[in-house]
Amino acid sequence: MDAAQKLKQQVRSEFMEYLTLHKHRKTPERFAILDHIYSTRGHFDMDSLYNSMIEVNFRVSRATLYNTIQLLLDCGLVVKHQFGANISKYERAYGNENHDHLICTTCGEVREMTGDLLTPVQLKKIRKFKVSYYSTYIYGTCSKCIHAKRMELRKLARKTETKQNKSNGKQNKK
Predict the structure, then answer these.
(1) How far, in Å, CA of 42 to CA of 102, rounded?
(2) Nearest CA-CA partner of 75 in 33, 136, 134
(3) Quick one: which of 21, 72, 103, 146 could link to 78 by a disulfide (CB 3.0–4.6 Å)?
(4) Are 91 and 75 in contact (CB under 8 A)?
(5) Is 38 exposed, middle or buried (0-12, 13-18, 19+ CB in 10 A)?
(6) How far is CA 43 from the centre of its chain?
(7) Residue 49 class from Cβ within 10 Å (0-12 exposed, 13-18 middle, 19+ buried)?
(8) 105 pLDDT tier (thresholds 50, 70, 90)
(9) Which stretches of 34-165 are assigned E, i.e. beta strand?
């Protein structure tokens, strides 16, 4: 059995325990949603999850999605992010490497960057706390937006220069 299958089996087992403990129904839809989430990587919102499930011919209501996501959040199998927009983003909690989120405050794009910002020495200093994984939010401006802003400023400067040249030409004619 490969690592992906083991991971799916582990989260399925944890979800089953959670549902049993809290006396929730164990429906095929809930397990299909869990399986779908753990079959893909990266962030998703509720609309993209709904659409991707329809693409694989699995019909599920939005209410079932929202209710199941809440259960998955409660049992720690899914993590919710609020990257500054009005839309909540989610990602699976298990099977992710430590990663950082680079969030552009101009266009809202979210990129993931892997690599440890926290060194092993820093992690060791966190006493009486076993770190499973971590995620960091870094807010700034992406290269596309920086480039677009530069181009906009250049265009504005050219317009201003053209207006000045025209007004200087009119003054010279008088």
Answers:
(1) 13
(2) 33
(3) 72
(4) no
(5) buried
(6) 4
(7) buried
(8) confident
(9) 78-81, 89-92, 99-104, 110-114, 135-140
